[in-house]
Amino acid sequence: MKSRTRWDKIRGPLFVNGVLALLVIIWLVPVLGLFISSFRDRFSLQTTGWWTILPHKEWTIVEEIDPRAEGLDSQGVMEVGGVSATFEELRAGVQTPEGQRVQWVGNRRIGYIQVQDREWTVNWDFTLDNYKQVLAGKAFEYQRPDGTVEVIQGDNFSVALFNSIAVSVPATVIPILIAAFAAYGFAWMNFPGRRFLFIMVVALLVVPLQIALVPILRDYAKLQINGTFLAIWLAHTGFGLPLATYLLFNYISTLPRETLESAFIDGASHFTIFLKLILPLSVPALASFAIFQFLWVWNDYLVALIFLGGSRELQVVTFRLASIVGDRGQDWHLLTAAAFITMLLPLLVFFGLQRYFVRGLLAGSVKG
Amino acid sequence: MDVTERPAMREVGAVSSKKENPLVAVLAAVLRIALAIAIPIIAFLVLYAGFIFLREGNAPKWLTAVVAIVWGVGGVAVLYWIFNWIVEMLPEVWTQRLQPFVFIGPAIAILTWYLALPVARTFWISLFSRDGPEFGTFIGLQNYITVFTNRLMLEAFRNNILFWMGIATPLTVAIGLLIAVLADRSKFERVSKSLIFMPMAISFVGASVIFNFIYEVKPVDAPQIGLLNAIWVGLGGQPQAWPAATSIAPWNNLFLVVIVLWMQAGYAMVLFSAALKGIPEEILEAARVDGATEIQVFFRIMIPYIMGTIITVTTTVVIFTLKIFDVVWVMTGGQFGTEVIATQFYRQSFTALNKGLGSSIAIVLLIAVIPVMVYNLRQFRRQEAF
């Protein structure tokens, strides 16, 4: 009877934590697979799953037989390793009664025969070459396990990484600056059209940016700034402003009135108050939006595709990564490393400043 | 604190409510608009000049970037300062009339250029044939008829409505809620929430690579390196090109839905988690003391209590999935029956260069979000004593 009640007591938490653990594992496995794979040797990556780094049973070579030294005739039936089989059968692999496998590796003329056994093994062939190849932007010589050498083109992802930083930082700071001024204006100043203009900001929160791409691209063509950083900063500024203004207004308008009033009485101007009082007090809101906007700009694909797409030397990481998917979708050694590089900075920002990010998310959940 | 103790703000309010000389009013309006436009334009020119200078000078890339950051951000800040300084030099009345527009003007001007005007301009373009107003012919609403009859557009509507709105959205909400409720009762709340939230930091392109790797397909006789096919073949199936498997179309869309689910469930979870924390403990305790089971507590107390958040999350995810682009574009390019509205928009506007049709698709997207816009405005009007 007593043990039953104890079971009842732990049953609930056990169930909760069990299901939760399962979900966390499901959520983690995709990233984990990519992360592990990005450090695996190119050849292993192409031929075995990343989970083979865990202990598993695999055919391993016990003995190698040179068919020519044994005097075997590859045109007929061969007696080797306890089996008799034709070349075609050996190519596919023949099981012996003892559970071993005899297999012909390579072509008919210079290939050889392996006797294999299933043994516990791990594929721990880790390397940093994938990262070197994807960042350095030159061709690499790669030696296959069978000794042949292959020349593989790398990728100059480091340039894209650099471009992403050059795009993201101004595209984060400029809208914050403009929005902070506007938020202060809406919160603490009185002027004709105030209500109407703020309603406009709220209405524009959910407008899909697709609506702006064709006209803005046309303006950019007239101004001849297509395919420049300037173009994409301004675009991100424009598209990020409604949310920035809305979030910062919500925060700034709730700052205690008393603080501002005493400053006004002391004769401070709006500009001084904004600079010396409001901005420092708004740091949490500014940080929230900064993280939001930074992640958005860094991870953005569509805006970069439209406004930077044409120029090869200005490609950002998402664009470059998508290009590799399109051109070399089977080169997993490049793809895994490149994908992880694109994720590195956002993940650092995310885990480092998660508190602010969550706060921004809770405050800004009206935007699509 | 009394109203009378707010000198500065009272004063500003007083100016605008006073009967103004019509000439002064017009002048004020002109100056206000001029201010709003002048700051962004001068900022643009300054940035542009710096840009051309660097480009002509063939400066190294890192220098361009550093100068861009300092120049761009610093330049904008200095402009605000200069204009504010000018306005503060004016007589007191004019300072009060114009200063607010130094503050809000640039934001309004940029919003107008980038979002408000394009609505009208895109609509105008959508009334023309493929080359737009300059070279095309006016064809009225012809493009909209095409939008609702074209085979690929109908496929896009089906996918957006059935798979993205009908399946992805409720699943995201449900899974987010499930995780929030479970995490709320677990000792490992922080860690588990953090990990499930993590995909939010990853780009859709990155997530597409991650899932491409999971869906990777190898020939029958080769070992499968994609996790899903490895499991599937291990269970005795034939290797499949999951999102590209036309044999199961249109259900191959579900493999794209999974990606968005993986990325967005964390968002839903965070919002639900915060909402659940807001339920007073006494209510839950009272129900439990009265003998309510956990399931009853969940459906009769928690769900009604967080209904507002459920609506918010659902709307956000609906709007998001309506505009879904990156995942589909990178994973399948809209082939194999996975076309969505946004990929069609991109294809028509920028690949097929049919500006008229592309613009009409953008307008359809806008019309689809109008109910949400109206809802937001109503909420805003209700809560704000503006």
Keywords:
heterodimer; A: 368 residues; alpha+beta; four-stranded antiparallel beta sheet; two-stranded antiparallel sheet; 15 helices; 8 strands; 61% helix; 12% strand; elongated; B: 386 residues; mainly alpha; globular; disordered N terminus
Number of strands of chain A: 8
* Beta-strand percentage range of chain B: under 5%
Number of helices of chain A: 15
Rg of chain A from C-alpha positions? 31 Å
Give the beta-strand count of chain B: 0
Structural class of chain A: alpha+beta
Major sheet of chain B: size, sense and barrel closure?
none
Main beta sheet strand tally, sense and closure of chain A: 4 strands, antiparallel
Mean pLDDT of chain B: 83
Most extensive protein-chain contact, per-chain counts: A-B, 126 and 130 residues
**Class by helix and strand content of chain B?**
mainly alpha
Helix fraction of chain A by DSSP (H/I, runs of at least 4): 55-70%
Q: Would you identify the regions of chain B where 5 or more consecutive residues have pLDDT less than 50?
A: 1-17
The tally of helices of chain B reads 17
Q: Note the quaternary state here.
A: heterodimer
Tell me the β content of chain A: 5-15%
Head-to-tail CA distance between termini of chain B: 20 Å
Q: What is the residue-averaged pLDDT of chain A? A: 82
Gyration radius of chain B, rounded: 28 Å
